[in-house]
Protein: 4'-phosphopantetheinyl transferase superfamily protein
Amino acid sequence: MPALFFQQQLVINEHSVQPCNANTILLFDAQQLNVDEFDLNALLSSFELAIITRRKSYKAKQEYLATRLLLKYLLKQNSSQFSQLPANQISSEFDEPSSKLLIHITGSETVFSSCLSHSNGFVGAALNVTRSEFGFDIEKINLKRPFTKLAKHFYHQGEVNLITQNQQQSAERFFRIWTLKEALAKATSKPIAKLLSPNVFTELTRANLAAVSCQYNEFDISVVSDKSTDWQCSVVNSISQLRGVLNF
Structure:
């Protein structure tokens, strides 16, 4: 039943980044970061340094640095083998064949898969330790967007009906469907363009994937996974919470 996908089932922990296990998505407002305060050479790999240098907008630099710090924190917390590894020896690099962001370790053949999302400066990061089908998405609920018009143009008619039948919840339903589609695209490595017009609820059932979602402040968040529905989010209130593990 589509109604199940509109329930607020995704758990958000606002008080601490602990416990931080393999099924944790870290959330952070990257606009808090002052990029110039960080020693980027100590925190980012040479590959990542080249990428952040090419970012033109300051906001993009904030989001890039924040997501990489979150990923490195998650890796060091969830793998004792790399807990003492300097952060700049951990490198996140996009892999075109798999359409995944992979985490490489200097001097090791071990590779981790990961997933990122960002919207209006709010970012999320997660490791995919088991290399399962997994994806999540964050989207700001923008009431000024012509979401009904957009839905009629891009979405499946069944989804349009769900959005237009309840005017009070139309925006929330539009963005919930959007985050589900984006999360599904990341989980299955399919282009989002191919998942806009199909009914996302049918596609989730066909792919045998589970989904949980919630709203957090102005944002809608959805998680799609094949092995577990116990993913939860932890909000990092200050990047200094990561300081002890990342040594900055």
User: Anything to note?
Assistant: The chain has a mean pLDDT of 93. The first helix runs from residue 40 to 43. The chain has eight helices and ten strands. The chain has one domain: 2-237.
